[in-house]
Amino acid sequence: MQMVETRRQQIESVASALFRERGYAATSVRDIAKALDIQGGSLYAHVASKEDVLWSIVSRAADRFRERVHPIAERQTSATDRLREMCRAHVEVVTQNLETASVFLDEWRFLGTERQAAIAERRDAYEALFRRVIEEGVARGEFTPTDPKITAIAILSALNGIATWYRLDGPLSADSIADQYAGLFIRALACDPSKPTVRPSQSIPKPRGRPIR
Amino acid sequence: MQMVETRRQQIESVASALFRERGYAATSVRDIAKALDIQGGSLYAHVASKEDVLWSIVSRAADRFRERVHPIAERQTSATDRLREMCRAHVEVVTQNLETASVFLDEWRFLGTERQAAIAERRDAYEALFRRVIEEGVARGEFTPTDPKITAIAILSALNGIATWYRLDGPLSADSIADQYAGLFIRALACDPSKPTVRPSQSIPKPRGRPIR
DNA sequence: AAGCCTACCTAACACTTGTTAGGTGTCAAT
DNA sequence: ATTGACACCTAACAAGTGTTAGGTAGGCTT
B213 pLDDT exceeds 70? Predict the structure, then answer.
């Protein structure tokens, strides 16, 4: 009974590819239709608007990231371990959903105001997953003391950059990329073993209003 | 004699701001004109085309990055030192030219094919500056062995990400951001001091065809 | 056989797009 | 006083934009 792909899914799939390579604003509804060998107006039997398609893509991609990474963030393992696995999972989502992930990362600003706000909220929450793991690692003396907010953003920027240059037919496997990135960040955070500063431990300080300085 | 700002410069300045916040494709020539309180067609007394404006912005921004970072890459100091300073300089260019840098990073794909290729070439050369410093640091045993290409891309992705979120009126000074980022990457690359592997030294291996694996 | 649903088409709508041709006024140099 | 450059305007162009209304053909159910 399993049908291969509903028309709506085909539209989103084709739109993802076009939005990624030309950008949302530079892709017309007729471009999408042409890729499916139908007429521009015929799309509206399946979708309410062009922005609607973007929203579906973006919001589904947001789901994927959270679904994969959130469970890892809640594990009871070391911060080092969780951060490594979170990085790996993030890279996996990017490389396995290259088009939708790219659209999510780059084109969400073309959504209407409310939808944009909804995504911003989810991105903040997602970023907070990384920030908290870093905070915890620092508090436990597992990580070098750093500003968790900046560090989290730096890590995510680097990981998200993969979406721009990764090619399925390239020489690098997704796994090896993930390992390299994860290793890089773990080394950046790993506490210098020469001075085993075991901070107050256990207690994680509540984040104050302003992030730094 | 110094005139404040030629009309052409005003156009590019206003266009940078609009391209950054709405994207090139979603910004009309009339939008740019309206910001200058003139009529859409009047712009063509100063510029040849919309793409021409983009090209000016993008290519000038590319210049700025190279001008600031290339001299540092050629210093005779340690790889650690050079990488740190290169990161700092890059952040400086981003934060001091927020709008043009953002446009350079995000909107260059809307250039025509040849101009796009020209920018791609310059970006590759710029990326190579970072890659070579990393290669050298690894070869000298100054850095942990890592794939220089991936590492360079990771660093630049993180640094470029700053262009998306940095605000002049935000709580973080550009300098402190630069230090944090630079510190992060240096720690990620610094060789574990417990095993002072002084590799063959001096000789830097020629990069082979395929990057890794 | 009738009705209905799905999937698509055609044609048009109101509007926006980048760009150009020709015209107007201002100001400095001749 | 004439010239010419400069900065801008108006008006239009051809093409493309997202979207809609109305129509048609085929297949499924009744």
Answer: no
C-beta of residue A132 within 8 angstroms of C-beta of residue A125: no
Cα B140 from Cα B145, distance rounded (Å): 10
Region B50-71: mean pLDDT is 98
pLDDT tens, residue by residue, A14-57: 999 999 999 999 999 999 999 999 998 899 999 999 999 999 99
Strand C proximal to B31 Cβ, under 7 A:
yes
The alpha carbon of B26 is separated from its chain's Cα centroid by a whole number of angstroms, namely 23
Q: Answer whether A52's CB lies under 8 Å from A62's CB.
A: no
Q: Average per-residue pLDDT in chain B?
A: 90
CA of B36 to C1' of C30 (A): 34
A212: its two tokens: 């730094």
Segment holding A21, helix H or strand E: helix A7-22
Residue B145 CA to chain centroid, in angstroms?
25
d(CA B154, CA B143): 16
pLDDT at site A148: 97
Any idea which fold B54-189 has? Tetracycline Repressor; domain 2 (1.10.357)
| CATH number belonging to domain A50-189 | 1.10.357.10
Q: Determine the distance between B128 (CA) and D30 (C1') in angstroms.
A: 72
